[in-house]
Hints:
- It is a single chain.
- It contains 15 helices and no strands.
- The chain is an all-alpha fold.
- Helix 6 crosses helix 14 and helix 12 packs across helix 15.
Amino acid sequence: MSHHMENKERIWTGTFVLVFLINLFNGIAMYMTNPVMPDYLTEMQVPFALTGIISSILSWVSMTLRPFSGWASDRYNQKKMMILFYGLNSLSLLLYPLCPNVFWIIMVRILHGISFGFTATLSLTFATTFLKKSALAESLAYLSLGQLIGSMFGPQIGSMIADAFSMKWVFFLAALLNGIAFLIIFFLPYQFEAVETKEAFRIRADQLIYKDALPYMILIGIFSIGNGIISYYLRNFGTVRKIDNVALFFTVNSLAMALLKPIASKIHDRRGIAYIIYPAFLLSAISMMLLSNATTLYVVLIAAVLKAMGQGTGSPALQAESARVAEQGKSGVAISTCLVGQDLGNIIGPMAGSLVIETCGYRLTFLALAILCLAGLGYFHLFHRNHKAAKDRPLAE
């Protein structure tokens, strides 16, 4: 019991609470603005066909910069970088409602993509500087709850403000919340240890992509593709299948994830990643199979819980593991490598989704995702088995 208490105290330190709050405000701001983006673009007379492309600019830009964010956070003062990029984030949100036309919206979207590509990597890497490796998965799971709470309440807050005032006010309030996160950064205790200067500006491939984290990048990408399709097309799926209140899927999914993440991460810290990933891919596959045939809300909500048990525990485990396998001073590039997979999935998902859904319908789309999850399970099995064999092999000295 005493060990357990000591464990609790060790995670929720003052610094940890501050980083948690930064993630929380940032998460709410992001999830408030994401869903109103297409509507706001339409209001600005952007043709509907372009709304998806303009919305996805953010993901493209942030994915392109992601490897550099890891490289930079392993090298430069992380606190100063957080101040810079969270500041840019707040500025972008403030600028959206002030754009006179589409050209400026695209410019601001690119700016937002730049800051977004750095903030996610930075807050995770910054956290690993003061967390113990033995409780890494659990700590990062608590940290990601900030984003999760954002995804639970953000969309509702956003649409309430849009209805009551106007869409511009959604961006103004999001900018304010992000501004609070930005101010908290100034209070973070941080000791910067400089890297030798001759190394500081030279970029090698292994500083942009961490080889040992590539399998995690592929696996998180598989989860992310399904996630991307569901977040964009579930409302339409509900309309097509005549299922009312289908958006409850997200609420139930988020609640289940909030309850499961801390438990799963404890198992991960104590037993290892295989205990999480095998069931995660299996449950995700079952969840997709259920959705492929779903005609009632009841089935959709069961799928939501299974998806939380699957992708909801699997993705954070893969992120934590990529930070854990990293050598000293390489956690930034390891985390950013893993996050590239997430970005790729978020881009591929909606793009491939729109094509597949249009040609094959929802049933085959979700079945294909189920098969993809089973393929992920097979890939993890091979990789994990070889990885373990390599670890058990005596070193040839």
